[in-house]
Amino acid sequence: MPTRTLAALLLVTVSAAACQHHQPVNDTPALGTVLPNIPFPPGAQPVGSNSGKDATQLEFLSNLAPDSVASYYRAVLAKPPFQLINETTTGKTTVFYAEQQGPSLWVTVEPSGTAGTRVTIAGAQQADSTTAARKPSP
After folding, report:
1. Which of 57, 91, 105, 136 could form an S-S bond across to 50 if both were Cys, CB 3.0 to 4.6 Å?
2. What's the pLDDT score for residue 127?
3. Looking at residues 110-135, what average pLDDT do you find?
4. What DSSP letter does each residue of 44-88 carry, written as one string?
5. Tally of domains within the chain
6. In the predicted model, is pLDDT for residue 18 greater than 80?
7. Domain containing residue 101: CATH number
8. What is the dihedral of CA 58, 78, 88, 117, to 10 degrees?
9. Which of 46, 94, 44, 100 lies closest to 74 in space, CA to CA?
10. How many CA atoms within 13 Å lie on the side-chain side of 51?
């Protein structure tokens, strides 16, 4: 699916999720703030999203096997703008933690039914460094 089409579908999904939660627009961060670089999974179809005050989570389904999708993320998150910090596998679920210039990124890759893969991409808004600097030391 072309990236522009996928991005358009993603925006519709995020907008629909925001409407379902009945949250004022000001309570959820802009997608580009928490997920400035979204490494879409191969063969991705957006299926859902969740947004809170400081974080956003996107869910996708891919028609590829979980091992193939995990290999894709292993390669993508090891190159700029990302730096792969950690990879953990428990059972058939693999979780990647990557850092970048900006918010960190968590990617969860797990089987979806008998064929395919569910991918969850999460990002959190960075803390304001000026606020952190003003906090007194214990």
Report:
1. 57
2. 53
3. 72
4. EEEEEEEE-SSEEEEEEEESS-HHHHHHHHHHHTTSTTEEEEEEE
5. 1
6. no
7. 3.30.310
8. 40
9. 94
10. 27
